[in-house]
TrEMBL record:
Species assigned in the record: Actinomadura rubrobrunea
A GO term from the CC aspect: plasma membrane
Family: Belongs to the F420H(2)-dependent quinone reductase family.
Gene3D superfamilies in UniProt: Electron Transport, Fmn-binding Protein, Chain A
Recorded superkingdom: Bacteria
Full protein name: Nitroreductase
Length: 133
């Protein structure tokens, strides 16, 4: 099972031939700039398309705090995305209250554990929209 640094490495080496399709769903690589260090951080995330936009979930497995990548993009929403061999700049934003229910259902359809993660935590798990720029 790939995930973490090894997942990123294999995905980058193979333009997603290894790592894009993962456990019955699809994964992209999100590069954020550290809000304190300014260093780049690459995170593999499950995604789905919504029109031309890419949708990811800041679940952290239902942990009580947001994942670092989400805090980073809140500080700097200009990110880089890799989907298979396609690498592009994007602007990240948290889905609005109006958008979130439909996007949440789309993401739960591809990764049912998101509902369990939400039950495990008091924080509202954000859904993030990545808009190609």
């Amino acid at each position: 099972m790939l995930f973490g640094k090894e997942h990123v490495k294999r995905y980058q080496e193979t333009d997603g031939a290894e790592g894009h399709d993962w456990q019955g769903t699809t994964v992209l690589l999100l590069t954020t700039k550290g809000r304190r260090t300014g260093r780049e951080h690459i995170t593999p995330l499950i995604y789905q398309m919504n029109g031309d936009d890419y949708v990811v979930v800041a679940s952290k497995g239902g942990a009580p705090d947001h994942p670092h990548w989400y805090l980073n993009l809140q500080a700097n929403p200009e990110v880089q995305v890799q989907v298979k061999g396609d690498k592009f700049a994007a602007r990240a934003r948290t889905a609005t209250a109006e958008e979130k229910p439909a996007l949440w259902q789309k993401m739960v359809a591809t990764w049912p554990d998101y509902d369990e993660y939400q039950r495990k935590t008091d924080r509202e798990i954000p859904v993030v929209v990545l808009e190609r720029v």
